[in-house]
């Protein structure tokens, strides 16, 4: 299997697992919005936003660094690999514990800042998840670095299913917002247990791998990660801090979560890309690196038609999933889903820069994003409320994406394929119009969206977007006994 096929194959397996976040996440979201109401869900969304921002910021620091160092050591002696794994686990657990303690202590001040005293006990409970997430993600990153994409996919899939089941059971039992938080905690424990079935790196064995090489990558990636996570969730926090109501926060959080549909491949594409590009660079196969980079950016562009489809049917989707009381979230979702594609492009270009030994460039690209966003929120939120927050997020995302593409061009002289962009824009326009004016009611939407989605794929194929190389990759993903 060639490197493009390896990229697509590894991405596909992890994407299929991460894709469970969509049905399970929306089932959970639909359940919670109905059980907690707009005010209750608004409180839960604020707590979850704050804690998950910290969790994923910390993971982003170690994720790419761990994958890079583990993949380089994978062909060496097991002792070196085990030493790296032990060092990573200790570092992630230690920082996770410190972050959890900091949130517990700062909870009253955060609640006062957001004008919601009820947040204090909820934040303290949710903070217990931070070290658990760090441990589980450290195991998943080690699995990815070793090329065990299937094992990572299994752990991820089980986590999403467990989260749905635990939250439904505990909230239904009468624990309300506390039950939702406890369900999330139980799911992370399950994820960690499954990972330990595949690998058992030790926290306690002596490790001769120094922390300094990790820190050399981790520091700029920490700055980049915390900036990106701050930017990704800053709109909801800014909306509430600038006078938005709890109800508006709940509506905006629904739109944010629904917009994740636009970046379904993002969690899988970046780590597989780092591992594959890093391996090619170690073998000095530079022409293949350039081809792979172009292919990765093309994958991001191919998200655009499906984002347009979702935006066109936004009203029907929100009504079906969350009920009429959340219909005001539809125009916000229609804007934010395109912002998500921009964030995916930033993620992909940053991953390429990390694999290309340019970690500092990622920090230089990411740090300005929340600064520019704050200026935009301060200008537009007082005038347009939640829609102003969404428009600011969209514009800043694509400015950051353009900067990432420029950095890749400086490093590799590679740009996204222009023809792909043109075809995607044409198909996106037609798909969005069709989705908007072909109105459906209730579950007929489940027929409408696949029908239009398949039609858009067919249109891309007729326009010449599916190349012979693409068809060859698809054939490599199909088991042999199904191709007889």
Automatic annotation (TrEMBL):
Topology versus the membrane: Multi-pass membrane protein
Compartment list: Cell membrane
Record field: transmembrane: 40-58, 93-114, 164-194, 214-232, 252-275, 296-314, 326-354, 361-381, 387-410, 441-463
Record keywords: Cell membrane, Membrane, Transmembrane, Transmembrane helix
Gene Ontology CC: plasma membrane
PANTHER family per the UniProt record, alphabetical: O-ANTIGEN TRANSPORTER-RELATED (PTHR30250:SF11), PST FAMILY PREDICTED COLANIC ACID TRANSPORTER (PTHR30250)
Protein name: Membrane protein involved in the export of O-antigen and teichoic acid
Organism ancestry: Bacteria, Bacillati, Cyanobacteriota, Cyanophyceae, Leptolyngbyales
């Amino acid at each position: 299997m060639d490197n493009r096929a390896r990229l697509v194959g590894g991405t596909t397996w992890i994407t299929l697992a991460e894709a469970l976040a969509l049905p399970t996440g929306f089932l959970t979201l639909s359940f919670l919005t109905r059980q907690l109401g707009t005010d209750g869900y608004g409180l839960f969304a604020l707590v979850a936003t704050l804690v998950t921002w910290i969790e994923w910021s910390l993971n982003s620091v170690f994720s790419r660094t761990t994958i890079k160092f583990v993949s380089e050591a994978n062909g060496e002696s097991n002792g070196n690999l085990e030493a790296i794994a032990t060092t990573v686990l200790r570092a992630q657990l230690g920082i996770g514990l410190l972050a959890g303690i900091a949130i517990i202590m700062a909870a009253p001040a955060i609640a006062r800042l957001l004008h919601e005293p009820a947040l204090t006990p909820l934040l303290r409970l949710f903070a217990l998840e931070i070290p658990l997430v760090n441990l589980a993600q450290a195991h998943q990153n080690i699995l990815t670095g070793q090329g065990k994409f299937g094992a990572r996919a299994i752990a991820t899939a089980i986590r999403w299913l467990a989260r749905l089941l635990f939250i439904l059971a505990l909230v239904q039992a009468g624990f309300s917002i506390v039950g939702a938080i406890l369900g999330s905690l139980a799911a992370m424990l399950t994820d960690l247990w499954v990972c330990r079935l595949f690998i058992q790196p030790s926290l306690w064995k002596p490790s001769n791998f120094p922390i300094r090489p990790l820190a050399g990558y981790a520091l700029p990636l920490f700055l980049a990660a915390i900036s990106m996570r701050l930017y990704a969730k800053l709109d909801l926090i800014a909306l509430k801090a600038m006078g938005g109501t709890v109800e508006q926060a709940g509506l905006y959080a629904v739109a944010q979560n629904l917009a994740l549909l636009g970046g379904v491949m993002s969690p899988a594409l970046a780590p597989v890309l780092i591992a594959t590009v890093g391996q090619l660079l170690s073998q000095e196969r530079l022409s293949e690196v350039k081809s792979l980079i172009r292919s990765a950016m093309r994958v991001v562009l191919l998200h655009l038609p499906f984002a347009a489809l979702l935006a066109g049917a936004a009203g029907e989707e929100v009504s079906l999933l969350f009920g009429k009381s959340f219909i005001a979230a539809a125009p916000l979702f229609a804007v934010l889903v395109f912002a998500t594609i921009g964030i995916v492009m930033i993620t992909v270009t940053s991953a390429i820069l990390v694999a290309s030994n340019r970690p500092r460039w990622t920090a230089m690209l990411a740090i300005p994003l929340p600064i520019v966003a704050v200026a935009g929120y301060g200008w537009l939120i007082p005038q347009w409320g939640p829609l102003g927050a969404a428009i600011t997020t969209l514009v800043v995302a694509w400015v950051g994406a353009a900067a990432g593409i420029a950095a890749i061009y400086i490093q590799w002289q590679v740009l996204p394929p222009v023809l792909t962009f043109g075809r995607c824009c044409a198909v996106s326009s037609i798909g969005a119009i069709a989705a908007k004016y072909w109105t459906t009611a209730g579950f007929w939407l489940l027929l409408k969206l696949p029908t239009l989605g398949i039609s858009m794929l067919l249109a891309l194929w007729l326009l010449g977007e599916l190349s012979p190389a693409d068809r060859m990759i698809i054939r490599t993903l199909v088991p042999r006994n199904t191709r007889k």
